[in-house]
Every structure is written in structure tokens, then in C-alpha cells.
Amino acid sequence: MSGGGASSSRGPYRKTAETRTAILEAALEIFAVSGFHSGSLRDVARRVGMSNAGVLHHFADKETLLAAVLDRRDEADVEEVRRLTSDEASALHALVHLARVNESKLEIVRLYAVLSTEATGLDHPAHGHFVDRYARTREFMREAFAALERRGRLKPGVTVESAAIGTIALMDGLQTQWLLDPGAVDMSAELARYLSGVTDVEFRAAI
Amino acid sequence: MSGGGASSSRGPYRKTAETRTAILEAALEIFAVSGFHSGSLRDVARRVGMSNAGVLHHFADKETLLAAVLDRRDEADVEEVRRLTSDEASALHALVHLARVNESKLEIVRLYAVLSTEATGLDHPAHGHFVDRYARTREFMREAFAALERRGRLKPGVTVESAAIGTIALMDGLQTQWLLDPGAVDMSAELARYLSGVTDVEFRAAI
DNA sequence: GTCTATATGGCGATAGAC
DNA sequence: GTCTATCGCCATATAGAC
């Protein structure tokens, strides 16, 4: 839409693009703290210094705003993982790195933790988004572990499917404990430990 | 309070106790689907066939109702695990069994999944409840794995602390994927697989 | 592009009748 | 013990001025 063209850096629409971005950043923080239902457009508007009607000039309604926030974050995440990944084995190293980075982004961690459970309800506006997202993430993990299996680097008794599901589950669950009590768990260290346990590769949390 | 005495099965307070129970069960379902902030007292009241004022006759306010729901569920869970546990090793078998049983209790799984993430916010009324609950659960798991370690039945490289944290994280994360797409994961099978991977004990999902 | 004003409706909680 | 009625507040969304 408005993201790619030259029109966004100059000309009459420059300010609009900037305002949209500011709204998206504010909405991310609000939805991360309060979830979709409880986070209000007025909270978002106040954070960017305008009225709720002003926000609704840029996004048709609240659901459209949520979808835009999620799409924007997913795009950034996919790009980051792709940037760090050269082959299928390094995808898992990239994952550990991402977990480490996330330890300094509490709001974004909370956004996904809160919304992904809130969206388990069939009638939640982001239900489809998260069902698709998890299906894609499982497929991504299957490919990474399948590459290791072909080289005989999965521990005996470990299957591609259970390693894929287990890795995602562990990351999600670690986030809950970490959000409730940041001092209680070291997310990236625990993830590295798990990956080292199911493969013959050594993973480390530190860079 | 009103739970223990003979007064609850007969006499003038019998009906009150029944009504309280009905309200607690309705509230569980509402909070499970919508969380605390979005789940309304009117929804709870409609489900038990009375007005919201009627509900507030039995529970001082909405927060008191939430606390009662959580205390009631925790009590039932602790009792169930204790019933199934004879020594520290069997505690882990009981956990697998509990995961299997939970696969037929979607509402209760959702209650904890939704509320535990919603409650990561410092100002959430159930924040303290969940911080305490996770601390206690981690301690319970530490004791179970420590007993196995004393008998030399932990796999090399596995520590008591990481096994405790990892087991809880895996259970929580599996629930998210399962709630979003029940056909995509077998919670108890994956838990059994994980436990078999970190110990020298064989765990099975089936009874 | 942003505002104020407003329509419409849900919320938690209280007061008081029965 | 439960109801109806009500208060005060906040929500989303729209209409129309500037």
C-alpha cells in the first residue's frame, strides 16, 4: 500500500505516513499491555497526542488497526530471522539470538503473549491471524529440524515433528514465566539448553 | 468459611451455597473465554439466570469473584495431583496424566492460559496470584527432579532447575498451540516425550 | 487531517422495593 | 435473596465544522 513507493518520503503524503507509523507504535504498546478488548482507541490516541476521531481517520476501525499492528510486527520478525539465517542449521542459532534480543523488548513479547491467548477464542478478530502464524512457524521449524535429521544430527528418539512443536511451545511458555517474574528464568539460555538436548549441535545463549 | 460445616448441606444456607457454586462455575466459563477485563458480571449473571445485582449479593465485587474462582480451581488441582502422587517420581507421571485429562477440559485450560498472560501486567488484580502460583509450581517440580537426580536418573547435562522450568514452559506453550488448533498437537504425548528425553525414565501418554 | 460534539450502548456498583 | 431502576463512567464510531 503506502509503504513502498517514493510518495512516502516526500510530498503531500509524507506526514500521513509518519502519523500512521506513530499510531501503529502507540497501538502496539497499548495492545501489549491491555490486550485488544481492553486497550482503547482513546489510550492509543492520547499516546500520539490526538483525539480518538483522529486515529479513526487513518484506520477504518479498531480491528483494522490491530491487523495492521500484527502485520507490521510479523514482517519485521520474518525479515530479521531471514537476515540471520544462511542455511537450515543456522535457523536454530538465529532463534536463540532472537530470544536473547527479545529479553530487551518486553512490550513486544507481551503483545504476542497476551494476544495469542486472547485470540484462542473462535470469535476473536485475530483468531485466524494466529492460527495461520503458528501453522507457518511449525512448518519453518520442521524444515530446520528435517535438515538436521538428514545429516543424522537429531538425538535418538527425537522426531522432526515433536522437536518443531516442542521448540515453539518452550519459547512461548518461557515467555509467560519471564513476563510474570523476569528474574526467575533466562529465556535464551533455556532455549539453547533444549536445542542442545534434542540435537547433536551445541547451542549457546551468548553472542 | 461456608464450605466445610454441616450447615452447607442442610438448613437455611443450603440454597445460598448452591447459588455461590453455580456463580463460580459460570464465572469460570466467562473469564476463560473473555478474560477478566472483558468478561462482564452481566454475562456471568445471565448464565446462572439472575441479574448482575444478584451476583453482587454473593460476591462483594468483581475482583473478589475472580479470586474465588481461582482459589477454587487451585484447590481442586492440588488435591488431584496429591491423590495421584505417592513418591516424587510418580509426581511426573501424575503430571502426564493431568495433561491427558485436561484435553477434555478446554474451558479450564483456557482459563489459565488467558488469565496467566493477562495477569503479567503489574496492576492486574490476579498478578500476585499467578506470581505465587508459578513460584510454587517451580518448587514442586524442583523437588520431583531432585529426587530423580539423587538416584542418578537425570540425563547427562540436565539440571534440576532447567528441567523444572522447561517442563512448566512446555506445558504452557503446548496449551496455546492446542487451544488455537486442537488437532495440531497432542499435549500429553509431547509432555511424555520431553520427560523421557530429560530423564532415564520412560513416560507414556496413555493410561 | 484533526477537531468537537454526539449517538448509542455496555460496564460496575448502589439504593431500595418486595 | 433477588429484583428493578439508576448513577456515573467509558467505550466505539459517526457527523460535520474548520
What's a concise summary of this model?
Two copies of one chain form a homodimer. Chain A is about 70% helix and about 0% strand.
Describe what this molecule looks like in 3D.
The structure is a homodimer of 207-residue chains. Chain A is mainly alpha-helical and 207 residues long. Chain A has one domain (2-198): Tetracycline Repressor, domain 2, CATH 1.10.357.10. The first copy, chain A, is 71% helix and 0% strand. Chain A contains 9 helices and no strands. Chain A starts with 13 loop residues before the first helix and ends in a 9-residue tail after the last helix. Mean pLDDT of chain A is 93; it is low at 1-6. At the A-B interface, helix 1, helix 6, helix 7, helix 8 and helix 9 of A face helix 1, helix 6, helix 7, helix 8 and helix 9 of B. Chain A binds a DNA duplex (18 and 18 nucleotides) through residues 15-16, 19, 40-42, 50-54, 56-58, 61-62.
Whole-number average pLDDT of chain A? 93
CATH architecture of chain A: Orthogonal Bundle
How many helical elements of chain A?
9
Here the CATH topology of chain A equals Tetracycline Repressor, domain 2
Instruction: Describe the main β-sheet of chain A briefly.
Output: none
Termini gap of chain A: 37 Å
